[in-house]
Amino acid sequence: MATGQSAIRIQSRLDPLYDVFREALITISQQLAQLIVRDGEGATKFITICVKGGKNTLECKRVAKAIAHSPLVKTAFFASDPNLGRILAAVGYAGIDDLNSSKVQLWLDDVWVAKDGGRHPDYQEEHGQAVMKQAEITVTVDLGRGDTMGTVWTCDLSHEYVSINADYRS
Q1: Which of 36, 103, 160, 163 could bridge 144 with an S-S bond, Cβ 3.0-4.6 Å?
Q2: Mean of the pLDDT values across residues 133-138?
Q3: How does pLDDT run across 11-22, given as a tens digit for each residue?
Q4: CA distance 6 to 156
Q5: Which residue has the higher pLDDT, 69 or 162?
Q6: Backbone angle region of 44, left / alpha / beta, with phi > 0 → left and psi within -120 to 50 → alpha
Q7: Which residues have C-beta within 8 Å of that of residue 145, sequence separation ≥ 6?
Q8: Residue 102: what are its φ and ψ, rounded to 5°?
Q9: Residue partners of 33: CB distance under 8 A and separation at least 6
């Protein structure tokens, strides 16, 4: 990406401009990545999947990707269906062998929907459904295993997506 045309020279990580450049590069890279998701074929919703409380970043990303890539979860988002079972099942099949499901917490935006691996006793489906009807949703999962986190962006899976790809021929 560097053309060498700038008069700015960052010689090492100790250079005061290094952190400024690094943060600007991360910000623009995240914006571009989010634009790709938002421009998904037939996408109607932008979803942030944030997994925290993992032993390491890899397992957080693994769980986030299992949720983000699940066709059942993505279609539930399209239908504005707060189907906790689909999301929790994706957590379960992410491949974390020693995961203690009784420590897993789940939020849709600020609505606490699953507590200690099961439905939160105060959760009311209409609150979850109100979140799911939004164009932008954040799903937060706490694995209760550590201090790391990972974030993945995804979109829903709509009728239009199926139509576009059913008509597409390579």
Answers
A1: 103
A2: 97
A3: 889 988 899 989
A4: 41
A5: 69
A6: alpha
A7: 53, 54, 55, 59, 99, 100, 103
A8: -75, -5
A9: 153
Q: Tell me the C-alpha distance between 146 and 131, whole Å.
A: 27
> Can you tell me the distance from the alpha carbon of 60 to that of 63, in angstroms, rounded to the nearest whole number?
5
Please say whether the dihedral angle defined by the alpha carbons of residues 141, 145, 146 and 148, taken in this order, is positive or negative. Answer: negative
Q: Where are the domains of the chain?
A: 9-39, 42-167
Both structure tokens of 142:
């706490």
Calpha distance 166→170 (Å, rounded): 11
* 42-167 topology per CATH: Ubiquitin-like (UB roll) (3.10.20)
CB 76 within 8 A of CB 83: yes
Mean pLDDT of 91-100: 93
Return the minimum-mean-pLDDT range out of 6-20, 66-80, 107-121.
6-20
